[in-house]
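Entry:
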Amino acid sequence: MSASSNPPGPKDKGNDLGKTSEQVALMNKADQALSDARLLLENDRTEAAVNRMYYAAFDAARAAVLIHGEAPSSHAGVKTRFGYHFVRTGLISRPHARTFAEAEAMRNRADYDAFSVFDVAPTTDLLNDVAAFVSAIRSILEE
């Protein structure tokens, strides 16, 4: 941190791993969303858990896209740029890419379909997949 009392800006290094402060903040948000999803699932709040899982994946994807100096302003933009930089190039596996897409589709159902119902077992599977997705992004950021 500089001599001033201001927190690091987006271009300042947030830690010794070379991540920017914005990437660190986004990964912290992803971790918090995963933690929230676990708590919600423990209380059979599957629709709310799905929402938090999607945002865990979304925030991790945003952190990854920042590697390329890009900060898309929409969910579709993040998804497109993430696919371009990480899926197309093989830096992230196709199964992880499917996890991100599945989390988005399930979140849309959970948030916008008044009659959506999610069973605990498949929702728990998605939680495990999203946790692996976030971990894969973390590994990329730490390279």
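The two ends are 22 Å apart (CA to CA).
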